[in-house]
Design a protein that fits this description.
Blueprint: E1 4-13, E2 17-26, H1 35-42, E3 46-52, H2 55-71, H3 76-85, E4 92-98, H4 101-109, E5 116-117, H5 140-146, H6 148-163, H7 170-174, H8 179-183
Antiparallel strand pairs: 1-2, 3-4, 4-5
Helix pairs in contact: 2-4, 5-6
Length: 186
C-alpha cells in the first residue's frame, strides 16, 4: 500500500469563481493492530434482506433463516452479504438490522412489520455535474434537448425552487453563455 497519496479539489466561491487545491499526504507509521478493534468490526450492525413471492412466503423464509442460524451459525458479515447480493430479489422484501446473530434470531422470531412489495418500475438514475472538469461546458444542454424525461425532471425542479422564491431557473442556467455568471449561481 502506498505511503504517500495526492488529493486534488476545487472549491467554488462567491462571487468571482473558484480555487483549486492540491495536498500530498503521507501515511502514518505502522502501529500494531489491536485484535479487540478487529472483533468490534465483526460485530458492527448489518442489514439482513430476505425476499419472497408474497408476504406469507417472505415471513416463512425469515422463520426458516432463524432456525438455520441456530443450527448452523455463520459470520454476520458473510450472511448479510449473501442475503443481499447472492440471493434472488423477489417482489416481496423484508430487511432486519442486527449487530449479532443472536440479535438477528430474536428479531426474526418477533417480526412485527409486514414485508414490503418492491417497486416494479425501473430504477431512476441521477446525473451529477461535479464541476471538476470531467465534463465540457454546457454538456447538460444535449441531455435537455435529446431526453424529454431529463427536461421534465429539470422543469419539475424549476417549479419547486420557483415556489420557494428562487429568482433564477435551473434550465436557464444550462443555456447561459457567460462562465462567470455560472460561478455566481451558488
Amino acid at each position: 500500500m502506498a505511503r504517500v497519496t495526492k488529493i486534488k479539489t476545487f472549491l467554488l466561491t462567491k462571487p468571482s469563481g473558484g480555487s483549486n487545491g492540491h495536498a500530498i499526504i503521507e501515511a502514518p507509521r505502522q502501529v500494531p493492530v489491536d485484535q479487540t478493534d478487529l472483533a468490534s468490526d465483526l460485530t458492527a450492525s448489518r442489514v439482513f434482506v430476505m425476499s419472497g413471492h408474497d408476504s406469507k412466503t417472505c415471513k416463512a423464509i425469515a422463520k426458516q433463516l432463524s432456525h438455520d442460524i441456530v443450527t448452523n451459525p455463520w459470520k454476520t458479515e458473510d450472511l448479510a452479504y449473501t442475503l443481499a447480493r447472492r440471493r434472488s430479489k423477489l417482489p416481496c422484501r423484508l430487511a432486519v438490522r442486527a449487530d449479532t446473530l443472536d440479535e438477528l434470531v430474536t428479531k426474526l422470531n418477533a417480526i412485527k412489520t409486514e414485508p414490503k412489495r418492491a417497486s416494479s418500475s425501473p430504477v431512476n438514475i441521477g446525473f451529477v455535474f461535479t464541476g471538476q472538469g470531467a465534463q465540457w461546458h454546457a454538456m447538460g444542454r444535449e441531455l435537455i434537448e435529446r431526453y424529454p424525461v431529463f427536461k421534465k425532471a429539470l422543469e419539475d425542479a424549476d417549479n419547486c425552487i420557483s415556489s420557494l422564491g428562487s429568482s433564477w431557473s435551473i434550465i436557464g442556467k444550462f443555456f447561459v453563455v457567460s462562465v462567470r455568471y455560472h460561478a455566481n449561481l451558488l
